Amino acid sequence: MSSAAPHHQSDSSDKLEDEQLEQLLLSSDQAKLIQAVRENLRRCETNEGKFRICAEARSQLLEQHTQFELLIALFERVMLVECPGYRSWRRKKNVGLAHIDAEDERDRFIGVAKCTPLVVGNTPRSWERDLI
Questions:
Q1: Dihedral angle computed from the Cα positions of residues 40, 42, 47 and 51, in that order, rounded to the nearest 10 degrees
Q2: Tens of pLDDT along 1-45?
Q3: SS3 content of the chain, % helix, strand, coil (to 5)
Q4: Cβ neighbour number for residue 97 with a 10 Å cutoff
Q5: Which domain of life is it from (predicted)?
Q6: pLDDT tens per residue, range 66-94
Q7: CA angle at residue 46 from 43 to 48, to 5 degrees?
Q8: Helices (H) and strands (E) in the chain, counts
Q9: Residue among 113, 126, 121, 130 nearest 17 (CA)
Q10: Can you list the pairs that 110-118 forms with residues at least 24 positions away whose Cβ atoms lie under 8 Å?
Q11: What is the Cα–Cα distance from 15 to 17, expressed in whole angstroms?
Q12: Sequence-distant (≥ 6) Cβ neighbours of residue 123 within 8 angstroms
């Protein structure tokens, strides 16, 4: 029974640390979105409902990611057409590089998501050392 109390304290500490990290790394709108999903998950009483919330959130994120990729591509197009210096820099940068297709970009996105536990688990301690 005494082992349950430290576990609960650890969970509370981890939750607080997660929320602080989110506020530090994300815009206020992004942090609010994560908090809304967290609250919806906590209020949900069934695993099926929780899964549905997660699936909807993931779908929304992937849609936003797709829209952002389109925005980047259109910016790139405008900059290449309108700015000779950028066009020259881009050509030099791309020499010898393989084309990165959409699947590679999706893998990069998933890779960032997989790194999140490492960031959450390790970053605050290192920041504390840097601040001292």
A1: 40
A2: 434 444 444 566 666 677 788 888 889 899 999 999 999 999 999
A3: 85, 0, 15
A4: 7
A5: Eukaryota
A6: 999 999 999 999 999 999 999 898 888 77
A7: 120
A8: 5, 0
A9: 121
A10: none
A11: 5
A12: 21
For 39-43, 45-49, 126-130, which range has the lowest pLDDT when averaged over its residues? 126-130
Return d(Cα 8, Cα 102) in angstroms, integer. Answer: 42
Question: What are the residue ranges spanned by the domains of the chain?
Answer: 101-132
Contact 47, 63 (CB under 8 A): no
How long, in residues, is the chain?
132
Does residue 38 come out as left (phi exceeding 0), alpha (psi in the -120 to 50 range) or beta? alpha
pLDDT category of residue 131 using cuts at 50, 70 and 90: very low
Amino acid occupying residue 53: I
